[in-house]
Amino acid sequence: MKSRIITIFALCLSVAVMAHRKESYYSKTQPANLKEEKVTRVGFYLHDILSGKNPTAVRIAHDNLTRDANSPVGFGSLFVIDDPLTLGPEIHSKEIGNGRGMYVSASKEISKFTIVMYADLAFTTGKFNGSSISIFSRNPVAEEAGEREIAIVGGRGKFRMARGFVKIKTHHIDMKTGDAILRYDATVYHYY
C-alpha cells in the first residue's frame, strides 16, 4: 500500500512538472498598458578632455595607415570616454553626472570632422539620480557654427524606453589637443 501511494504521488508530481514545462521561448503578446508619454528637457555641459595628466577621453585604437601625426583625433581612431556632465561650462561647475561610452573618428578630412558615438549619459544627483539616456548617432563636430543633432535611443531608470534627440553646440574646442566643452540640450520622450 505504501509503495502504491509513493508511485501515485510520483506520477502526479511528474504530470505537474510536465504541465509547467515551457514549449516556447516567448509569451503571448499583450498590450503594454504604458502610462501616458512624458517629455522632459535637460541641459548640461559635457567636458571631453584628451590632454593633460587626467584625460576623460582616451584613444584605445587607431589605424596605422590613416593616422595623421598632427591630429589628436585621426580618421579611424577609437576613443573611450568617462566625461563629466556639469551645470555650467566651467570644469569646476557642479557635476551632475557622467557620459560613458565610446566614439570613432569617421571622417578623413579634419574640415568635415565627424564622429560616430555611443554613450550612456548618467545622472548622479537630483530628480533623475540613477537614470540615464543612451545616445547612438553620427555627430558632425565640424558643423561648429550651429547646432547639430544626435539621437536618443534608450535609457534607464526614469528614462526607461526613452527616445528623442540631443541638440549639441560646441562651447569651446581646442583643435590642437582635441579638448572640447559641449552644450547638450536633450528632449527626452519617456513613460516613467
Automatic annotation (TrEMBL):
Signal peptide: 1-19
Main location: secreted
Alphabetically ordered keywords of this record: Apoplast, Secreted, Signal
Subcellular localization, as worded in the UniProt entry: Secreted, Extracellular space, Apoplast
Record-linked InterPro entries: Allene_oxi_cyc_Dirigent (IPR044859), Dirigent (IPR004265)
Keyword ATP-binding (UniProt): no
Function as written in the Swiss-Prot or TrEMBL entry: Dirigent proteins impart stereoselectivity on the phenoxy radical-coupling reaction, yielding optically active lignans from two molecules of coniferyl alcohol in the biosynthesis of lignans, flavonolignans, and alkaloids and thus plays a central role in plant secondary metabolism.
Quaternary structure note: Homodimer.
Annotated family: Belongs to the plant dirigent protein family.
Record's protein name: Dirigent protein
Organism for this UniProt entry: Camelina sativa (False flax)
